[in-house]
Amino acid sequence: MVLGLGTGSTAKHAVDRIGELLRQGRLTNIIGIPTSKKTQEQAISLGIPLSDLDSHPTIDLAIDGADEVDPHLNLVKGRGGSLLREKMVEGACKKFVCIVDESKLVKYLGGSGLAMPVEVVPFCWKFTANKLQNSFRNSGCVAKLRKDCKGEPFVTDNGNYIVDLYLKKDIGDLQVASDAILRIAGVVEHGMFLDMATTVIVAGELGITIKNK
Ligand SMILES: O=C[C@H](O)[C@H](O)[C@H](O)COP(=O)(O)O
């Protein structure tokens, strides 16, 4: 089985568990495809055999977290900065299981008021950020360059920057918004994962809910 290994505080538990099952001999014959350098390091430390999309262009199952989930199981991802590799790996999956707690459920993407990440090339990032902000001005969009803890631009695993979009209102048709973002030269990828999750597992006060596509 080829397994996409997600990134973030939630996915970390899943990767730990996969490592544990392997060690106990309860899981055999798996290959992991990590979605970030951090997950790659974690998987190596757990002895999980790894490969990549070049060698395994079809993935059986990916497990990952998300930042927002809308009622149609569309997601926002990338507040940890790993959206590009996640989108490549999870876009190549037969099944994509997303695990969240109920604080991640939103009425519409961007509805948490938190960042909607867009990965951009560093070259003239302000130009790209302005284009992004203008594209969504009707939704009260503010575009900000993400900084690291030293106040320097946050650099992704791919050597790019992240521009976070903060929205005051619904951006409307998500596919139209996605196409508009991807048409801007300088944009590499955005954190909206539309129609990609096949299952979302939601942990809440009253237990676990499983939502299937
Ligand atoms: O870039 C980060 C990933 O998209 C994460 O999967 C997402 O931010 C959710 O992370 P967490 O499980 O830590 O809330």
* Secondary structure category: alpha/beta
CATH topology of the largest domain: Rossmann fold
The CATH architecture term of the largest domain is 3-Layer(aba) Sandwich
Give the strand content.
25-35%
The whole-number mean of residue pLDDT values reads 97
The percentage helix is 10-25%
Tell me the count of domains.
2
- What spatial order of strands do you see in the largest sheet? 2-1-3-6-12-13
The stretches of 5 or more residues where confidence is low (pLDDT under 50) are none
Count the E strands. Answer: 13
Could you describe the 3D structure shown?
This is ribose-5-phosphate isomerase. Keywords: Acetylation, Isomerase, Phosphoprotein. Catalyzes the reversible conversion of ribose-5-phosphate to ribulose 5-phosphate. The structure is a single chain. The chain has 213 residues and is α/β, with parallel strands linked by helices. It contains five helices and 13 strands. The strands form three sheets. A six-stranded mixed sheet has the order 2-1-3-6-12-13. The radius of gyration is 17 Å and the shape is globular. Ribose-5-phosphate binds next to helix 1 and helix 3.
